[in-house]
Specification:
By secondary structure, the chain is mainly α. It has 18 helices and no strands.
Length: about 425
């Protein structure tokens, strides 16, 4: 016991922040999951549901290149309190509208955009907090705890949300979210003391900081191509995310519980992948690991989701799709840390976030529109005996399944194309 306690010496304040913030993230993730189900039940539209994520991601894409510099200028503790409090207010607004019977989809779009704006500011501040509250000798353990908590939230949030939704309803899910926000705000306000960070000698302007980050990437094409590769993958992955609720909530053998089960298996696979990534030795070629991991993930999961007719096959797809993602992330992060000078990392990472993630809202829009406007009408118009109807079946949800077939092929083509990029392989030299 003493050995265990000494291993985590100096992390008391980190544990307080880590535990309460992750509790709040769990509550927020449960609400997001439940509102996706609610929105699809209201309209039966993949695009309508996908727009929830578009509104959340749009502020991040637009402002993340400046967010790091803003976070450096503001008091960390007060910023965390302000962002958590604002998140609680938006959640309270949803609950009030729901209880009065006035909640509409457009309300969620507005509130998601506001929450996304706060998250854009809060995320870089959270990263700095981890550094300030973690002794240098504990960095490895802290990284492991952060990976573990992320996987646990992904695993638990759909399970808990589906259970509470089925037993107590949407209001109970939102009430739990409010409770977790209150715990996070109260803890940060009254129980957390943050060491002062050394003030930089000079703070560059927001625009000059952004220009420097983008300029470094333009001069280092291998890193830029890696980021563009992942941007293409994010485009395909967000199309998958847009189509998944539409398919699992509509097809025979699906439903709210099945959607929660598949999402939970995704989190479990990510958790197992995180353990695998920490146990594997350093590979000879990180670029090969990145490309091959994504090739396996993109092809297998989407294919099994498209052709499967029940939760067993869909869950197998989730395992194959997400088991290697932490392995990919570990090697990608290692490449970036090794290639980007320490003094440039904050600016380059801010530029990276904009370039790598701007395709996510695009993918959500494209995926939702393709399901509603093209693939669902296409599947409904096919005659009996047509190849696609034989493979995918008939009825609502088969349009989303057809999209999974398409993005499986697109994922394979993107991975094979970037494997031929010489500048990626130069990162290993």
């Amino acid at each position: 016991m003493n050995k265990f306690l000494s291993a985590f010496a100096g992390l008391r304040m980190f544990f307080i922040v880590w535990s309460t913030q992750n509790l709040s993230i769990l509550g927020s993730s449960m609400t997001s999951f439940a509102l996706v189900i609610w929105s699809y039940q209201q309209k039966g539209s993949a695009l309508t549901t996908a727009l929830l994520s578009v509104c959340s991601y749009a502020p991040y894409v637009a402002l993340s290149i400046f967010a790091g510099s803003l976070g450096d200028r503001w008091d960390k503790r007060r910023t965390m309190i302000a962002c958590d409090s604002f998140a609680a207010l938006t959640t309270l607004a949803v609950l009030a509208l729901l209880r009065t019977g006035r909640l509409e989809i457009w309300h969620l779009y507005v509130l998601n955009a506001l929450s996304g704006l706060m998250n854009t500011i809060q995320n870089p501040v959270s990263e700095v907090l981890v550094t300030l509250l973690s002794p240098k000798e504990q960095v490895q353990r802290v990284s492991g705890l952060l990976s573990l908590s992320g996987s646990l939230v992904s695993l638990l949030s759909p399970v808990f949300a589906a259970a509470v939704l089925a037993l107590l309803g949407l209001e109970a899910v939102i009430a739990f979210d409010l409770l977790t926000c209150a715990v996070a705000v109260g803890t940060m306000a009254f129980a957390v003391r943050i060491p002062e960070a050394a003030a930089p000698a000079a703070r560059p302007s927001l625009t000059s900081s952004a220009r420097e980050g983008l300029g470094w990437l333009a001069a280092n094409r291998g890193v830029l191509d890696l980021i563009l590769f992942l941007a293409c993958i994010n485009l395909i992955a967000s199309m998958y995310n847009a189509a998944l609720p539409a398919m699992l909530l509509s097809r025979p053998g699906g439903g709210e519980t099945v959607l929660g089960l598949v999402e939970a298996v995704t989190g479990l696979a990510s958790l197992a992948g995180s353990i695998l990534a920490s146990a594997l030795p350093e590979p000879r070629s990180r670029v090969r690991v990145i490309c091959n991991s994504l090739l396996v993930s993109m092809s297998t999961e989407n294919l099994l989701l498209a052709l499967g007719r029940g939760p067993v096959v869909w869950c197998c797809g989730a395992v194959l799709g997400w088991l290697l993602i932490p392995v990919m992330n570990t090697n990608m992060n290692a490449l970036l840390r090794l290639r980007i000078p320490v003094e440039m990392q904050s600016r380059v990472y801010a530029a990276r976030n904009t370039l790598q993630f701007f395709t996510i809202p695009v993918g959500y829009l494209l995926g939702g529109a393709l399901v509603d406007r093209f693939f669902e009408p296409l599947m409904a118009s096919l005659p009996e005996g047509a190849l696609l109807r034989t493979l995918l079946g008939s009825g609502k949800g088969t349009g989303a399944a057809a999209l999974f077939l398409v993005i499986a092929g697109a994922g394979v083509l993107v991975c094979l194309a970037f494997r031929r990029d010489r500048r990626l392989w130069e990162l290993e030299e």
